[in-house]
Specification:
The protein is an alpha/beta fold. It has 18 helices and eleven strands. The protein is elongated.
Length: 519
């Protein structure tokens, strides 16, 4: 009996066990490069299907019979204290042990313990290639786990062999990791100058960045579940999942799995609704599965902090393909690949501010047992809530802003924490943050009402006027006529005292009712 397939969120996908779409569907370039005996790199964020693609590629090449191909990881040699000699042995052992998964015995390299020459990766690959009648396609996973002399050594050995391929060295080598190989030089000690300023793997023909799923590909993936079970993911459900995930493959699978397995308990007769999607999103964020935890760990790194802080504030960042911080964040999947530069998807946009202000959010005490900002009819009194925040900000901001790791984004994070704590459970906050806008937009939905808040740091005399123009345009796009412009003074209270900086004013601007909240 054929085993039931499911949405996979751990390890690589296998077509007989998991719902999956062909990882090689858009990769004609890979087959062209292999045919031309080229060396290339593949990079993509974690859990976007790199390993699935590699396994599928190796199996397909071996099945077609024109090449022999092996995927193996070099991660066992990925720590700083290892010597080149020991690293070579670990990498060769990994290659040999993996080869048995893909090849019959006569196509495998000889066991390392029977190898009589100097045991280097270069020598081992030369002798393996000479022993074979078909060209070898070698796929090295986790290449960017290597450091310093070990990384340099591996790259040099591959460069040396490149000259004698395909008869006496693998015909094609693909290096696979989180980052483009051009960035590997950042993992080498500054004293290692012999790499020069260019790429340490300058024989590569292409650098392939794996993309996210399109909406059509999500539909195709989910339709496999429908075919197996009869349970349908309606178009509106797919559209919302695409909004939440931006097509990030792990998130696409995780949302579906959460709905089907956890929420509906694999009762395939039940209809999947938009409410199920929102519940799944919240469960995944609250649970902080491994994927989200690994993303959150990166927020502590200085170059990630610089970019994320600028996005939260809406500050301008000059996008340059050679700006390492931007490339790094893109390669990790934290920011979008296209302009404007923003957090990659709605789930990341939700979880990043929550994590950054979690300690504050936990410490904000709710006043009394009743929700004092809820009107008798159950509607949200936004004026009351923002006036309470003004008072809170005046009393607590200087202490809290000093504690924030993300000091530049501190005022925005304080307000988000305050609103999240008070609104949590009864409504939701949609965050719109992008570099270069000079603002952050919050759309708060509560009991059928919508409220627009635009947040700006009061850097220049023209800030207020620009903010009024911007929020008016934003309200137009939403078909709304009322909004709030929140201005945070960046000068300390010793220069501009609280008595003069805390203001509340409602005015008409471009036929909109705008309440300006200054602090």
């Amino acid at each position: 009996m054929k085993s039931k397939r499911y949405f996979n969120t751990t390890g690589f996908c296998m077509p007989e066990r998991h719902y999956m779409i062909d990882p090689l569907r858009n990769q004609k370039i890979i087959f062209d490069l292999i045919e031309k005996t080229q060396y290339f790199t593949i990079h993509a964020p974690r859990q976007t299907g790199k390993t699935t693609l590699l396994h599928e590629l190796a199996h397909r090449l071996n099945k077609e019979g024109n090449y022999i191909s092996v995927v193996f990881s070099v991660e066992s040699a990925g720590y700083r204290s290892i010597t080149e000699e020991i690293a070579n042995k670990k990498i060769i052992n990994s290659l040999y042990s993996s080869s048995g998964q893909y090849l019959n015995k006569k196509n495998c390299p000889i066991p390392p313990e029977k190898y009589t020459k100097d045991l280097t990766l270069e020598n081992y690959l030369i002798d393996w290639a000479i022993s074979q009648t078909k060209p070898i396609v070698l796929l090295l996973d986790e290449i960017d786990s290597l450091y310093d002399d070990v990384l340099v050594s591996v790259l040099r050995q591959l460069r040396n062999g490149f000259q004698i391929r395909p008869k006496r060295f693998p015909s094609t080598v693909a290096l696979v990791g989180l980052r483009d190989v051009r960035e590997y030089k950042t993992k080498v000690r500054p004293s290692e100058v012999s790499l020069g300023s260019g790429s340490p793997f300058n024989i590569k023909a292409e650098s392939i960045l794996l993309g996210t799923f399109t909406k059509e590909e999500i539909t195709e993936l989910y339709s496999q579940h429908t075919k197996d079970t009869g349970q349908i993911f309606l178009k509106e459900v797919v559209d919302r999942i695409y909004e939440l995930t931006g097509g990030q493959p792990w998130l696409v699978n995780a949302i579906a799995r959460e709905i089907v397995v956890k929420i509906l308990n694999e009762d395939f007769t039940k209809k999947i609704t938009l409410d199920h999607v929102e519940s799944a999103k919240e469960n995944i964020i609250q649970r902080r599965d491994t994927h989200l935890d690994s993303l959150i760990d990166k927020l502590k790194e200085e170059r990630v902090k610089n970019i994320v802080s600028a996005i939260i504030n809406g500050d301008g960042v000059l996008f340059d393909n050679y700006d390492d911080s931007l490339l790094y964040c893109r390669d990790l999947g934290i920011i979008s690949e296209t302009k404007p530069i923003r957090i990659a998807n709605e789930i990341y946009r939700e979880i990043i501010p929550r994590v950054l202000n979690r300690n504050l959010q936990d410490s904000i005490e709710e006043e009394g047992e009743t929700k004092w900002y809820i009107k008798p009819n159950g509607k949200l009194d936004m004026d009351k809530l923002l006036k309470a925040f003004q008072a809170f900000y005046r009393e607590n901001s200087e202490m809290w802003l000093e504690k924030f790791d993300y000091k530049e984004a501190g005022p925005h994070l304080l307000l988000m924490a305050f609103l999240q704590r008070e609104i949590n459970g009864g409504g939701k906050i949609n965050r719109e943050m992008a570099v270069g806008t000079g603002r952050t937009d919050l759309l708060i939905e509560f009991n059928g009402d919508k409220f627009v808040l635009e947040l700006k740091l009061n850097r220049l005399p023209s800030t207020k006027q620009k903010g009024l123009d911007q929020i008016s345009r934003y309200l137009d796009t939403l078909g709304m006529t009322k909004g709030y412009l929140i201005l945070f003074e960046i000068k300390p209270s010793s220069i501009i005292p609280w008595e003069t900086r805390v203001k509340w004013e409602t005015l008409s601007h471009q036929n909109k009712e705008i309440t300006i909240v200054e602090m």
